[in-house]
Design a protein that fits this description.
Elements: E1 21-30, E2 36-44, E3 48-59, E4 62-67
Antiparallel strand pairs: 1-2, 2-3, 3-4
Amino acid sequence: ITGPYTRANAPLLLTGDWDLHAPGSAGLFPADKGQWNLVFHARVQGQIRAMFTGRLELKGRKAKFVPLEHG
């Protein structure tokens, strides 16, 4: 992923998404077939911070976070 970059009109993750609080410090790492995964931390159960991963779907100039299914 190369620049120049333009700030999005809306955040990728917000407090309340998937019952998370204060999501932040995101990083990208390559996935299969030119796709990208996103890793970030968020507060859960009070003051506990946990790490989360998901797929970053890129379509043109839009990005969408899709949580990974864990079974």
